[in-house]
Amino acid sequence: MAKFMLKCFGLVIILLFGVLFGIQKAHFEMNELKSPSQKSIESLTTTAQEQSKATDAEAVTSHDIKTKQETLNKIDSFNVFSALGQNLTSWISSAFSVMISVFGIIIQEMLAVFSP
């Protein structure tokens, strides 16, 4: 029995350290994605300055953005998988609500039968 408990405890410790290591690695990778290296920051600032000079010359208006937004709103693509997923979730939620109400009625009737 003691040998079994030691093996289980050892496996739990190994799995715990594995999970902690994975979380730490994921955190490190996310920080690398969020904050690029110093060289890329310098290159971004120079390209941003160049782009700001170019946009000053072009003078983009809000009217252009509004027309683009209107054209995007007009393009209403129908996604079959999205529609199927919405229908499936509505069916499942209604089925579970019916099951819960039926179980509630059954439990209520059983309690009514067994109560004095």
UniProtKB/TrEMBL annotation:
Keywords: Membrane, Transmembrane, Transmembrane helix. It comes from Fictibacillus phosphorivorans. The chain crosses the membrane at residues 91-114. It holds the Pfam family DUF3679. Residues 34-62 are annotated as: Disordered. Residues 53-62 have a biased composition (Basic and acidic residues). Residues 34-52 have a biased composition (Polar residues). The keyword Secreted does not apply. This is DUF3679 domain-containing protein. It comes from the Bacteria.
